[in-house]
Amino acid sequence: xxxxxxxxxxxxxxxxxxxxxxxxxxxxxxxxxxxxxxxxxxxxxxxxxxxxxxxxxxxxxxxxxxxxxxxxxxxxxxxxxxxxxxxxxxxxxxxxxxxxxxxxxxxxxxxxxxxxxxxxxxxxxxxxxxxxxxxxxxxxxxxxxxxxxxxxxxxxxxxxxxxxxxxxxxxxxxxxxxxxxxxxxxxxxxxxxxxxxxxxxxxxx
Length: 205
Ligand code: SF4
What we know:
The protein is an alpha/beta fold. The protein is 29% helix and 8% strand. The site of iron/sulfur cluster has 12 residues, from helix 4.
């Protein structure tokens, strides 16, 4: 094949029949199928919802059927964060830091009313009213607490989301999108989100 596109590397003539350079969307179904069977969740729980998450991983429900029994202790080896429980302001910097350390592609499930909106503790002095104030969330699982079956439904919702994704559209394969991570919020007398500070400074100028 010829390399007409200036953004693509030049392929020597003798290799043009052996090398394919260009959009790999034809591989997307295979890529998405393999991701569905090899999702590795990050180990950790925040409050009571975590026990339902643990039950979902135990023998009665059998998370292994999704290829998800390998729960990783390190964010460097995980691609799914299940935020299960109340997100306190003290934990917020750690959650963002762990999210930043996860490799792309990565996904987040907000499990339970607390992770979605603060739940019964909404507007509490020490509670973040929803983890999506800090990091992007892919699937929300309502309930207080949600049953393991509801968490499984979230896994299926993630699978359905991947079925719609194409390799050429994915953020982490695009050179024009920089991933600098999310600024880690700082806990002082209150939680300081540096993104909000920057926005406020910009409006003042
Ligand atoms: S949503 Fe309910 S069960 Fe889950 S962490 Fe909050 S209070 Fe606990």
